[in-house]
Structure formats: C-alpha cells, structure tokens
From TrEMBL, chain A:
The modification Phosphohistidine is found at H83. It is found in: Cytoplasm, Cytosol; Nucleus. Histidine-containing phosphotransfer domain (HPt) contains an active histidine that mediates the phosphotransfer. This is Histidine-containing phosphotransfer protein.
From TrEMBL, chain B:
PANTHER family: TWO-COMPONENT RESPONSE REGULATOR, TWO-COMPONENT RESPONSE REGULATOR ARR10. Residues 184-243 form the HTH myb-type domain. It comes from Camelina sativa. This is Two-component response regulator. Residues 167-181 have a biased composition (Acidic residues). Residues 141-185 are annotated as: Disordered. The keyword Phosphoprotein applies. InterPro entries: ARR-like, CheY-like_superfamily, Homeodomain-like_sf, Myb_dom, Myb_dom_plants, Response_reg_B-typ_pln, SANT/Myb, Sig_transdc_resp-reg_receiver. Transcriptional activator that binds specific DNA sequence. The keyword Nucleus applies. Residues 20-135 form the Response regulatory domain. Belongs to the ARR family. Type-B subfamily.
Length: 157, 525
C-alpha cells in the first residue's frame, strides 16, 4: 500500500465532501446515512442514492407529463410528486433538491403552471448535478479502497 | 396482578431486540433507509411498498408482527385508512411516518389511532424507542381484561382498582420512561373509535344532552368492557366541545352584545379607539419558536395594555391602584392569565400608569386569529394571549360570559371555569396575596359552581403538563404537537386518543387559522 497515495486520496476525498456540504448539496442527513454504512452494508449509501436518483427521474417525468398541456394540468398529481420528492430528498440529505421542492410546492399550491415548470426544470438540474458530484465522490472512495486505504469519516459540525 | 413494566421486559428477555416490525412506504428510497435504520436498532424487519400487501401480510397471521410503521401518503391506500384497519382488526401499535409536518395530519394520525407520528427524515434515535408502544399496548390489553373480569365488578371497585393501577403505572413509567408522552401516564385507555363514539352519540341523543348521565349512557351503549368511568370522562369532553361549538356559533351576536355592553359599562368615549385594532397579521417573526409563545410574556407591554385601557375606560368607574388591581380587571371579563404575569403586571402598575405604549405586538398576537371576537375585549384584557390555546379560550370564555349578560360588577364571575381553573391552578401559584381581593379572585375559583370542580381534575393535569413541560424543543413529536394545537385536541391526547371525532372535526375545520397563525411559531422539524 502506497501510504502517500492513500493519504493524498483521502485528503482529496475529505476536501471534496466538505465542499459538497458547504455548497449546500448535502446536509446532515447524508452524514447520518454514511454512519449507517458498515462492513455489513458497505455499499449502503451508494445504493440508497441510486434509488433516489431513479425516483427523481421517474417523478420528474410524471410531473412533466402532468404539466405539459397548459389547459389541462393535473396539479394534484404534481403536488403528490413534489411531496414524494421532498420526502425522499430530505431522507438522503439532498439539500438543494429539497429546497427546490419547497418552492415547487408553493407554485403548486397556487396552481402556477409557469412557476411549476421552472421548478421542475430546476429540480431536474439539481438532481443531475448532485448525481454527478456523488459519482465523483464514490469514485474517490473506490480509489482509496483500491489503494488499500480506508474511507475517512467526515463529521460536519 | 399486573406486572410492572420492568418485570415484563425481563420476561420478554431479548425484547426489544428482534421485535418484529412491518414497514410500509411506497417510496423505495425511504423504505430502504427505514429498513436499514430498523435493522440497526436490531429489530426484525419486513418491508413492503404497498399498503394492500401490508394488510394481507397482517391478516395472514396477526401474531407475526409486533408493530407497524407506515407512511401516510401512499397511492394504493391512504395511510390513515391502513392505520385504522390495523388498529381495529389486529390491534397492533401503528406508527405513522410522513414528510408532512402539518399538525392537521398529525392530528388525523392520532384520531385514527396512531401510537406515534414521525416526521421524515426519520432519525435512528426516534426508532430506538418505538418498542415502548408495543409494551404499552400489551399492558393496556392486560389491564382491560383484568379489570372487567375481576370479582365484585362494581363501578366503585373498578375505579379504585384502576386508580391504584394508574398510580403504579405512573410511578413506573415516570421512572423508566424517557418519553414524555402523557398518554403513558393515565388510566388504561379506551380507544374511542368512530363506532364506539357513534354508539355514545346515539345514547346521548336518546337520553337528551341535558339528561345524559354516564350510567344510562353506558347501559344504552351496551358495550363489553366499557366502564361508567370511561363514559363519564368521554361525556365531559363531549360537553366541553359541544359548549365550544355553540359558543362559536354565538360569536357574531356576542360581538355586538359585547360592544354595547361595554359602552354601557364605561360610558366613556375612549373606548372607541380599541375597536380599530383588529386582525393585524401575525408575523412569523413574532414567534421565536414555541418557546417564546409559552414562556415569554412581555409584561411591560401587557401592562401597558391594561393600564391604558384601564385609564381610558375605568377612570370613572374603578380605582386604579396596586391593591385593587384585581378590581380594575373585574369590570371586564378577564382572560385566564398566567399568574406569574398577573403578578408582575400588578406590581408595576403604580409606576407605569399612563405612559406605556401598547406594542402592536400584543394586538398582533391577540387578533391573529380572524375569529377573534370582541375587539374591545381582547386587546385590552388578554395580555397573555399569545398561544392559540389562550386565544380560543378567551374568545369562548368571553363569549360565554357576555352572552349570559352578567351585571356589570359580576361580569367576570362566571367565566368558563374550565380554562379559568386550569390556568389558575396549574400555573405556579404566584398570586400576590395583596392584590387578591375577595371579589376579584380571578385566580381562586371561589365563584365557580360545583360542576366545575369536577372538571378541574380533568383539565388540571393536562394544563400542568402543558405549561410546565416547557419543552418546545426536543419533545416527542406527538405530544408536542398536541400541546401546540387546539387545546381540546391536547386534552384529547391526555386521556383518550381518538375521541370526539365529529365535534373536533368540525372545530378543526372552523378554526383553520390557528394553524396558519401558529405556523411561524412552531418548531416542527
């Protein structure tokens, strides 16, 4: 094991994950999820976020359909979709996504189609952005492990 | 004999390790997380993303699970419906999960029989304690069956035995219980389901509300294992709620009556100013978490209110001095003030006669509730009207008083004694003996009828909890919410969850704005 390389990777990992918190991509809930990961479930976080991104894609798609025709918007469906998205994003710690959901809900409540469409676009952007970031993070993790090192636990206080 | 909780736990040995949980959530992300969290707590977990499947699993074998955790919003079946069915068919404890922090939902959960209501994202700490619901439930079942099978099953014997058990339960649970849930501490609960309540209503209806006495109601209802005492307490609440409903109905008429009444009383034109202080929108900034509402009473401002009103209105009628502080307020109905604040208010009364500005905040607080009646009353005489509890109480209370057209000097003497008593007696007794003149006694219920005394007991403990708990922060969600919202609901929780559905429902729909009003002030996570 090349300790220098491992050390570098670990630092890189640490800096990266901290930056994600600082930029608001992630919040404390993500930390909690990481805590649940252990030898028994080593890929727990990756699994969960993967499920989350699948959910996002599906929900966004459904909502997009509901919002498509200006004269015939199913706000109820949209509301239900936003609600679910809010729930799951808060459960994984996807802070930015959750924030958009809050604004999204407000547009939905007042039946503002334009607003909803904007939010929809934004939530799509945010989840994809997060997906890329987390992908990078997991890659770093893999590199560390392959170099024989351990993944640092990062606490954000 | 009933086992103590400790004994029971020992017997169950491994418990709560291996407790069998059924987790239901249509959101796969959340379900996966929940599953892992539950595993981490060493429970045995079964998951499904469909409510229908969950029901089938449960029906297949009732004894296969100890506890159910379910999300509220599911496409194939309303989580509340599932909750109700599980409660009725299997009598298993059910915990609700939701991203909705809206108290309406929490209320709904409780009314449908939920043991607890957790907000997403769920934390592992919250799940670590859910096993208590299983223990509690089984203890309840044990109590219910032992009570009704006992020899010489007279009501009195029952009551005595139950009280003894209550006391024991209380002791044990206070010792062992981390959770401040008030439902843990009272007598074995009868779950007032829709069905049961309807029977109750039918019986009351048949007898006539005035003539409905617990014994007769019980007989008419003809429900196994239901005791006269259960019915009595349910009836109490029913009557209270009824009263409130009818009070609200009278509100509009009273407003006019109050105004004219006041005009008569004071014959002072200064009164005019107060009518203008109406519904000032409540800023959420006002309420710095629930803590502020409950604890932080800016006495100066309140005082100012009292003073200026007193100055404006009572110059001719009442002396304004320290000792007669009580009298000043005597002329108008006095809301249930926390005694501490009354004390403060009156002590500085002398020194702050005319100069105080009334912060709009006060009125703000008072009139946030669009249903607030009697603008002339509320602004002036409810300085501590910062919680929605108080607010509603005042309105109902003042309505009650004024609608009975009390003579001037006795206007205060027949308030809604429930609130009165509750607030007075439960808060720390800080009445300054100096100011407590005999006729005033707004904190000693000397004027109250005997019927009120009975009700005192009922409300008292809750008020104790409500005001003394002072935990607006890390309190269990369920209890916290109930203290926060409509006092009736809070009272509900204290004794029988799920009771008074119909009446409370109507009340809830009528009083929409408290939830709006209190949004800003609630620390709901």
């Amino acid at each position: 094991m090349n300790t220098i390389v491992v050390g570098q990777l670990q630092r890189q990992f640490q800096d990266y994950i901290v930056s994600l918190y600082q930029q608001g991509y992630l919040d404390n809930q993500f930390t909690e999820l990481r805590k649940l990961q252990d030898e028994g479930s080593p890929d727990f976080v990756a699994e969960v976020v993967s499920l989350f991104f699948d959910d996002c894609a599906k929900l966004i798609n459904d909502m997009s359909t509901s919002l498509e025709r200006p004269d015939h918007v199913d706000f109820k469906q949209v509301d239900s979709g936003v609600h679910q998205l809010k729930g799951s994003s808060s459960s994984v710690g996807a802070r930015r996504v959750k924030s958009v959901c809050i604004a999204f809900k407000e547009c939905c409540d007042v039946q503002n189609r334009e607003g909803c469409l904007r939010c929809l676009q934004q939530v799509d952007y945010e989840y994809k952005m997060l997906k890329t970031k987390l992908q990078d993070l997991f890659n770093l993790e893999q590199q560390i492990l392959q170099a024989g090192g351990t993944i640092p636990q990062v606490s954000m206080n | 004999m009933t086992m103590t909780i400790e004994q029971e736990i020992e017997v169950l040995d491994q418990f709560p390790v291996g407790m069998r949980v059924l987790a239901v959530d249509d959101d796969q992300t959340c379900l996966r997380i929940l599953q892992t969290l539950l595993h981490r707590c060493q429970y045995h977990v079964t998951t499904t993303n469909q409510a229908q499947t969950a029901l089938e699993l449960l029906r297949e074998n009732k004894n296969k699970f100890d506890l159910v955790i379910s999300d509220v919003d599911m496409p194939d079946m309303d989580g509340f419906k599932l909750l109700e069915l599980v409660g009725l068919e299997m009598d298993l404890p059910v915990i609700m999960l939701s991203a909705h922090s809206d108290p309406k939902y929490v209320m709904k959960g409780v009314k449908h029989g939920a043991c607890d209501y957790l907000l997403k994202p769920v934390r592992i700490e919250e799940l670590k304690n859910i096993w208590q619901h299983v223990v509690r439930k089984s203890k309840l079942k044990k109590n219910k069956s032992s009570v009704s099978n006992g020899p010489g099953n007279s009501d009195k014997a029952n009551n005595n035995r139950k009280r003894k058990e209550q006391y024991e339960e209380e002791e044990e649970e206070e010792r062992g219980n981390e959770n401040d849930d008030p439902t843990a501490q009272k007598k074995p609960r009868v779950l007032w389901t829709h069905e049961l309540h309807n029977k109750f209503l039918a019986a009351v209806d048949h007898l006539g509300v005035e003539k409905a006495v617990p014994k007769k109601i019980l007989d008419l209802m003809n429900v196994d294992k239901l005791t006269r005492e259960n019915v009595a307490s349910h009836l109490q609440k029913f009557r209270v709620a009824l009263k409130k409903v009818s009070d609200e109905a009278n509100q509009q008429a009273n407003r006019v009556a109050i105004d004219s009444h006041l005009m008569q009383m004071t014959s002072h034109k200064g009164l005019g100013g107060f009518y203008h202080h109406r519904a000032i929108p409540v800023g959420s900034g006002q309420f710095h978490g629930g803590a502020t509402m409950m604890r932080h009473f800016p006495s100066n401002r309140n005082l100012g209110r009292v003073n200026s009103l007193a100055g404006g209105m009572f110059q001719s009628s009442f002396p304004r001095n320290h000792n007669d502080g009580g009298n000043i307020l005597q002329g108008l109905p006095l809301p249930p003030l926390e005694e501490l604040q009354i004390n403060k208010a009156f002590q500085s009364f002398d020194s702050q006669q005319n100069s105080l500005m009334v912060a709009p905040n006060n009125l703000l607080l008072l009139d946030g509730h669009p249903q607030s009646s009697s603008p002339s009353l509320n602004p002036g005489f409810s300085p501590h009207f910062e919680t929605s509890n108080n607010k509603q109480r005042l309105e109902h209370w003042s309505n009650t008083v004024l609608s009975t057209n009390m003579p001037q000097s006795n206007v205060h003497s027949k308030p809604d004694s429930l609130e009165w008593t509750a607030f007075c007696d439960s808060a720390t007794p800080l009445i300054n003996p100096n100011m407590d003149t005999s006729s005033t006694s707004f904190c000693r219920n000397t004027d109250f009828g005997s019927s009120n005394a009975a009700q005192t007991d009922f409300f008292h403990p809750l008020q104790m909890n409500q005001q003394h708990a002072n935990n607006w922060g890390p309190m269990p969600t369920e209890a916290q919410v109930f203290r926060n919202c409509d006092p009736k609901e809070g009272l509900h929780m204290a004794s029988d969850a799920g009771s008074l559905d119909d009446i409370v429902n109507s009340l809830m729909t009528q009083e929409q704005s408290p939830t709006d009003f209190s949004e800003g002030g609630w620390v709901m996570v």
